[in-house]
Request: fold
Amino acid sequence: MVHRLGNKIGEGGCAEVFEWEDGSKIIKLAKPNTVLAALQAELHHSRIAWACGLPVPQPYDLVNVGGRSGVVFERIYGDPIIKRFVEKAVEQSRLQQPINMMDDYVNAETTAQLFHHIHSHSVSNMPSQRENIRNDIHRAQYLTEAEKTAVTAELDRLPIKQQLCHGDPNPGNILLRDDDAVIIDWNNASTGNPEADLAEYVIMIRYAILPPHLPNEARVALDATRETSIRLFMQEYERLSGISYADIDPWIGPVAARKLVADGISEEEKVLLINEIRRRLDIG
Reply:
């Protein structure tokens, strides 16, 4: 069978996404900055999530197209949360409607429900979240060796759990399909503490700098609703799990440090993360 790429339908920092075969599937083709091992890991993690019955695209195979490696998945027809957020912000501005700072602009409650579902599973044959975080902290170029040692010591004092974690709770990775939420991009998945996923979400909402190509209305809406979104997210997650903001707060420093090596984070956002890390080290 001759495989033919369809239309390009998306792009991230590490891959381009195209329609595949009859359009019921997609293929994520790696960019030059992505090694084969990363695609193999994403396929492996996705198969584990699929086997758990989680709302993820069905994973198929690793293939090669024109010298580029790619992973084939079921195609999900839905809008990323970030797309819905931008559209709502722009429409409200067009209609001259004020921003309701109590509104759930980024579907925080839906995201909390989704992550509680993920965290309810314990799996084997997955990377260690703690080792991933520790390795990333030591690779961070923006911290001194003393700061890396101090943040790693904070990490080592935290309790150890063995639950399935996604590793990248980005509103761009959650697709809304009718009344369902589907989560993609499992390359950073691991076994560890749900609190690390939750800290990642809090940091992302609190400090994310939207790409410059997005309309200014989205930046205004995000800035006005950041803390409301975090509160709604934590209220729902605590209702489901009993885990509170106080439980995840100690994880914010180590997770912020590991994010300094992530692709696609602006220098402005890195400065915010460094300031947060150093503030916490001073308190400690």
